[in-house]
Specification:
With 213 residues, this protein is an alpha+beta fold. The protein has two domains: 3-113, Phosphorylase Kinase, domain 1, CATH 3.30.200; 117-204, no CATH class. The chain has helices spanning 3-15, 25-34, 74-87, 127-140, 143-150, 160-170, 172-184, and strands at 39-42, 46-50, 57-62, 97-102, 108-113, 117-118, 195-198, 201-204. The chain has a five-stranded antiparallel β-sheet, with helices on both faces. Strands 6-7-8 form a three-stranded antiparallel β-sheet. Strand 4 (97-102) and strand 5 (108-113) form a beta hairpin. The protein binds adenosine-5'-triphosphate and magnesium ion. Magnesium ion binds next to loops.
């Protein structure tokens, strides 16, 4: 049985009755301990189960990081944001999420394409990073144009090297539409840990925002 399938089966067997709002960080740690070889990464609100042998997908699940009445499934809002982006033809830059199943208590497990690199962990001396910085950052824009684009969005600390590679890949007009989309939907945490590459193509893998509902 693949490690991801084992994660799914374990969740079904152990958390079916649990109200989603009571699913917490300790639970995702328990899941990781129960499945040999599975890696678990997490942010403020979600856990990601990664099978080192599966190149294609990861599983994601929202946990409750706050009071029970504040529980929010950021994966579910991400799916809504994706639909909203699609309505404005700027979804190509987003890594889509899809539900795998929802348990009786409301916990939903989701699946997402695995990234190749996360921007924030790129080695600054690597060939790839130096290529992005020297080719795309200098080529795509002068700094004023880049800043103007940044200020159309919600998150004004977005990394310029990632943004330059996105402009190169998707075009300036597309990126203007995308930045406006982030503003309208208060997508307020496009930090470098949420920006990634599949192969050499830049994507956003976490566009749920934080405390924005
Ligand atoms: N598609 C993916 N492929 C590989 N690893 C991933 C993927 N998505 C997420 N991860 C890993 O899981 C971590 C948590 O995922 P994610 O950023 O979606 O959670 P979050 O709780 O919303 O994060 P934040 O703290 O930014 O709000 C990421 O920082 C990353 O290490
Ligand atoms: Mg994140």
């Amino acid at each position: 049985m693949s490690k991801l399938l084992a994660v799914a089966k374990y969740i079904q067997a152990n958390y079916n009755e649990l109200p989603a709002a009571r699913f917490v960080y300790a639970d995702v740690c328990d899941i990781q301990k129960a499945i040999p070889g599975i890696k678990m990464a997490h942010g403020a609100t979600r856990a990601c189960f990664i099978d080192p042998d599966n190149e294609k997908y990861v599983y994601k699940i929202s946990y409750n990081d706050s009071a029970p009445n504040r529980y929010h499934d950021y994966c579910a809002s991400e799916i809504q944001f994706y639909a909203e982006a699609k309505a404005h033809r700027c979804e190509r830059i987003l890594l889509p999420l899809e539900p795998v199943f929802t348990l009786d208590g409301g916990i939903t497990l989701y699946k997402q394409m695995k990234y190749t690199y996360v921007h924030g962990e790129l080695n600054k001396n690597s060939k790839f990073y130096r290529f992005l910085k020297t080719q795309y950052l200098s080529e795509s824009t002068n700094r004023t144009v880049l800043q103007r684009l940044i200020y159309q969005g919600q998150y004004t600390s977005i990394d310029e090297v990632w943004l330059a590679s996105a402009i190169h890949t998707y075009g300036y007009k597309f990126m203007t539409e995308f930045m406006k989309f982030t503003k309208r939907n208060c997508i307020n945490d496009l930090h470098s840990g949420n920006l990634c590459y599949v192969g050499r193509q830049p994507y956003v893998m976490d566009y749920a925002g934080y405390c924005n509902f």
